[in-house]
Amino acid sequence: MKKADIRRIVEKNITDVKIIDIHTHLFPASFGELALWGPDELITYHYLIAEAIRATHINPSKFFGMGKAEQADFIFKELFINRSPISESCRGVLTTFSTLGINLDSMNLDDFRKFFSKITIKEYIDKVFDITGIEKVVMTNDPFDKTEVAYWVNDIEIDKRFISALRLDILLNDYQTARYELIKMGFEVGRSLNGIAKREIIRFLKENIKKTNAVYMAVSLPPDFKMPGKTIRNTLLEECVFEVAVELDIPVAFMIGVKRNVNPDLQLAGGSVGKSNIESIEYICQKYPKIKFMTTMLSRENQHELCVTARKFNNLYLFGCWWFLNNPVLIEEITRMRMELLGTSFLPQHSDARVFDQLIYKWKHSKKIISKVLIDKYEDLYDTGWPLDEETMKNDIVNLFGRSFYNFLKLKL
Ligand SMILES: [Zn+2]
Prior knowledge:
This protein is an alpha/beta fold. Helix content is about 55%, strand content about 10%. It has a single domain, classed as TIM Barrel. The strands form three sheets. A five-stranded parallel beta sheet has the order 4-5-6-9-10. A three-stranded parallel beta sheet has the order 1-2-3. Helix 3 crosses helix 5. It is globular. The mean pLDDT is about 95. Zinc ion binds next to loops.
C-alpha cells in the first residue's frame, strides 16, 4: 500500500459502512405522531429555537404562542435569510435538504416543503436509512410516557431496524412522580423505599425490558450526580437498576452533565451543561465489574478524564459526542483524543436524532470528521514503517460505526 492509498481506502469504507446509531429519540412509523420528520420539525428543533430567540430578542412566550409552521417561518427568515446560517444547527438543515436533492437556490422554505409533501413517512424513513447507510437505530423508550406506552401493546410488531433502550430518567431524577405513576400501574411502592418497594421497582424494570426487548437501560443525569452517597437516586441505582443489570446482563448507559431548565422560559431549549464528577464513574466501574457501563459526558472539560478512566476499566464503553459537543471543532478534538488514548475501543458518534431528517446531516458531518482523523492516524502509522492492511482498516471502521457496540453487548447482528 502506498501512503496515497490511505485516503481512498478510508473514504471508501466510511462511505460504504453500515451504521448502528446507538442513541436516538426516533420512533418507527407505526408510532404515529411520535415519529417526527420534515422541515417544520427540523427547523423548530430546540437547537434552532434557542439560536433564534437569542438572535432576535423575541419574547419567548410570543415565540411559543405561534403554531409550528409559523415558528419555522420565523426561524427560517431570521436565521437563514436575515443572517448567514453558519451555526452547526443551521448548516445541518441545509446539508439535509441538499443531500435529499433539494435545490437551495430559491432560499424559500415553501419550495423546500414541497419535496416532503410528495412522500410518505414510511418512504422517507427508507430513504433516510438508505442515504446515511444506517442499518439500525436505538430508540429511547420511556415507560412513563403515556403516549408512547399506548403503542407498546402486546402483539406489537416493531420495524426491525429500531432497537429499544429503556429510559430511566423519571424513575431516577423525579422519584416522587415515578412513584405516583407506579402506584397507578399497580406496583406496591409505599412512602418509603423499603424492601417491598425495591422488589416492585425491579419487577417494573424487568417487565419493561421484556416488553420492549430493550438492549440497555439509560439515564441522563445532572452535573451534580455523585456516587456513592445517600440519595434516593443512588439507592434506586445500586439496589434496583444494578440488580437488574447483573441478573439480565444488560448494560446501563449514563449520560451525564445536563442541567435542565437553566432558562425555563425557553422550555426544551432551556437546558444547559455543567462539568460532572468523574469519581462517580470510577466508583461504579470498580464496584460493579460485572456490569457494562456505557457513558457519555456533556461537558468538554470531562472528556480527557473520561478517556483515562476508560483505559482503567474495560466495563466502561465510551460513546458519542453528545448535544453541545456535536459540533465539528469538538467532534474532531474528542475523536482524536479518544483514538490516541483508546485505539479503536470506543464508539465515536451517535446522532441523538429526534427528527429523522437530523440523521442525514449529523452522520454526514461526523463521517467527514472521523474520516479526516482516521486518515491522519493511518498516515502516522504508515510513517513508522508498519505495513497497513486494507482488511484490518475496513474492520476498524466497521467497529467504529457500530459493530463494537454489538460486541460489547455480545449481540449478533
Ligand atoms: Zn438523547
